[in-house]
UniProtKB/TrEMBL annotation:
<dbReference type="GO" id="GO:0033176">
    <property type="term" value="C:proton-transporting V-type ATPase complex"/>
</dbReference>
<feature type="transmembrane region" description="Helical">
    <location>
        <begin position="162"/>
        <end position="183"/>
    </location>
</feature>
<comment type="similarity">
    <text>Belongs to the vacuolar ATPase subunit S1 family.</text>
</comment>
<keyword id="KW-0812">Transmembrane</keyword>
<dbReference type="InterPro" id="IPR008388">
    <property type="entry name" value="Ac45_acc_su"/>
</dbReference>
<dbReference type="InterPro" id="IPR046756">
    <property type="entry name" value="VAS1/VOA1_TM"/>
</dbReference>
<dbReference type="InterPro" id="IPR046755">
    <property type="entry name" value="VAS1_LD"/>
</dbReference>
<dbReference type="GO" id="GO:0030641">
    <property type="term" value="P:regulation of cellular pH"/>
</dbReference>
<protein>
    <submittedName>
        <fullName>Uncharacterized protein</fullName>
    </submittedName>
</protein>
<keyword id="KW-1133">Transmembrane helix</keyword>
<keyword id="KW-0472">Membrane</keyword>
<dbReference type="GO" id="GO:0001671">
    <property type="term" value="F:ATPase activator activity"/>
</dbReference>
<dbReference type="Pfam" id="PF20520">
    <property type="entry name" value="Ac45-VOA1_TM"/>
</dbReference>
<dbReference type="Pfam" id="PF05827">
    <property type="entry name" value="VAS1_LD"/>
</dbReference>
<feature type="domain" description="V-type proton ATPase subunit S1/VOA1 transmembrane">
    <location>
        <begin position="156"/>
        <end position="194"/>
    </location>
</feature>
<feature type="domain" description="V-type proton ATPase subunit S1 luminal">
    <location>
        <begin position="24"/>
        <end position="142"/>
    </location>
</feature>
Length: 206
C-alpha cells in the first residue's frame, strides 16, 4: 500500500436525518500501535452511525496490508454534554482480535459544539500494549451539513500567562493599598496651629 499522507476525516450520517453527522478529524493519518508495530490508518471504506439512548457510536472500517481494522468511536451523552473517551479496535487478519482503548484525558463539549485540541490524543489499552494516536483532533457526534460547529477548545481561558498577569496585578494592587494607607497615616506637626503654645512670630527688617 502507498504511504498515507494528508488529513483524515472519518464520518457517517444519521440514517433518519442525512443532515446530522458524526465526524472525527485528524490532521494526519491516525497511528495505531499494536505490540510495538506501527500501522498508519487511512480513509475508511465503510462507515456507520449507531444511535442509542445513552451514546452515539461512529463505526469505520479501514483496510490495511494484512486485513482490515474496525474502529468504534463512542460518544457518551450526559445532560447537555457529550464525552469522547472510548474506542473499540477490531483487528481482522487470520483471526479477530478486539481491544478496548481509553483516552488518556477527558474530552467533552456541549451539544451542538465540536471539540478541538492541538497535539496528540492517545487512546490506550495498557493490558494489551495497544495505542491509537489522533493528531490535532476535532470531533463532534452531532455535526450538521458536513461541517463542524464552533469548537470547544482544549486550551483553557486561564492559561499560564494569564495567571501570571493576574498575580502581578494582585501584587501591584496590594502595594498601592499599602502605600495609600501609609500616606494617610502621616501626621504633620501642628505645634504652631495650637493656640495654647507660643505663637510663631517673624520679624521683617526694612
Amino acid at each position: 500500500m502507498e504511504p498515507i499522507t494528508g488529513p483524515i476525516l472519518y464520518s457517517a450520517v444519521l440514517p433518519t436525518d442525512k443532515t446530522v453527522e458524526a465526524m472525527i478529524y485528524s490532521s494526519k493519518a491516525p497511528l495505531l500501535k499494536i505490540n510495538g508495530n506501527n500501522i498508519d490508518l487511512g480513509d475508511s471504506t465503510f462507515s456507520n452511525m449507531d444511535i442509542r439512548d445513552a451514546y452515539t457510536r461512529l463505526v469505520v472500517t479501514i483496510p490495511i496490508v494484512n486485513g482490515k481494522i474496525s474502529l468504534r468511536f463512542r460518544f457518551d451523552w450526559l445532560s447537555s454534554y457529550w464525552y469522547f473517551n472510548f474506542v473499540e479496535v477490531d483487528f481482522v487478519d487470520a483471526e479477530i482480535k478486539q481491544y478496548n482503548l481509553t483516552l488518556n484525558k477527558e474530552v467533552m463539549a456541549p451539544r451542538r459544539f465540536s471539540y478541538h485540541c492541538g497535539g496528540s490524543a492517545i487512546f490506550i489499552d495498557n493490558d494489551n500494549d495497544v495505542e491509537l494516536h489522533l493528531f490535532d483532533v476535532q470531533a463532534q457526534p452531532d455535526a450538521h451539513n458536513h461541517r463542524f460547529s464552533d469548537a470547544y477548545n482544549c486550551v483553557p481561558f486561564t492559561t499560564a500567562p494569564i495567571w501570571s498577569g493576574i498575580f502581578v496585578t494582585f501584587l501591584l494592587g496590594i502595594g498601592l493599598v499599602v502605600g495609600l494607607s501609609a500616606l494617610n497615616n502621616i501626621k504633620t506637626m501642628d505645634k504652631f496651629d495650637n493656640h495654647k503654645t507660643k505663637q510663631l512670630s517673624i520679624t521683617v527688617w526694612e
